[in-house]
């Protein structure tokens, strides 16, 4: 008999392979789905490393840890788990009202939905936001996504803003150096 636990923790560089696998399994776009896992892992590792250097990003992972028969839970080494989901949030300051958090990504491996993992990640991000003194958390949820159709965020107290419109300006591709974060204009 095994007992499963879910640990929500800050992402580490060695989570890049699991996160890349989740991104590919979700099938966010054809471009992402066509990249090899090795390419995706390298890109994710580079972005995690970038986020870890700065205080204005937080990446959390949900790690499922299974403790089975014959495994001592009081061992000096923590049991190895499987990363089954992640959330990325960016903290930014407004001149008018203080700080907000923008949840840019919350993805679970498709086999892991419906088990409360997304809820645990949202709760953890909310706790981080409270500690940082944020006034609100915001996100964009595409209407074609299953999470929108199931009212996932609404069930957790998030409110769709009917008076707002989401706009995007697609910029021409830049070289690799500038794909990680917008650099200050000099």
TrEMBL record:
Keywords: Acyltransferase, Transferase. It comes from the Bacteria. InterPro entries: Acyl_CoA_acyltransferase, Bact_Acetyltransf, GNAT_dom. CDD domains: NAT_SF. Residues 6-177 form the N-acetyltransferase domain. The keyword Acyltransferase applies. One of its GO terms (molecular function) is acyltransferase activity, transferring groups other than amino-acyl groups. PANTHER family: AMINOALKYLPHOSPHONATE N-ACETYLTRANSFERASE-RELATED-RELATED. This is N-acetyltransferase. It comes from Ktedonosporobacter rubrisoli.
């Amino acid at each position: 008999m095994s007992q499963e636990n879910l640990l929500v923790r800050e992402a580490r560089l060695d989570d890049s392979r699991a996160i890349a696998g989740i991104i590919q399994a979700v099938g966010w776009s054809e471009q992402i789905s066509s990249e090899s896992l090795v390419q995706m892992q390298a890109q994710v590792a580079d972005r995690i490393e970038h986020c870890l250097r700065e205080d204005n990003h937080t990446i959390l992972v949900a790690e499922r840890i299974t403790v089975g028969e014959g495994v001592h839970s009081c061992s000096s080494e923590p049991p190895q788990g499987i990363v089954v989901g992640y959330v990325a949030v960016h903290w930014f300051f407004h001149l008018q009202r203080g700080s907000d958090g923008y949840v840019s990504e919350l993805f679970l491996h498709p086999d892991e939905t419906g088990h409360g993992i997304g809820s645990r990640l949202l709760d953890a991000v909310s706790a981080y936001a409270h500690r940082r003194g944020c006034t609100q958390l915001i996100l964009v949820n595409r209407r074609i996504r299953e999470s929108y159709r199931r009212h996932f965020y609404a069930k957790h107290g998030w409110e769709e803003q009917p008076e707002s419109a989401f706009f995007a300006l697609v910029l021409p591709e830049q070289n690799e150096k500038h794909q990680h974060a917008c650099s200050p204009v000099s």
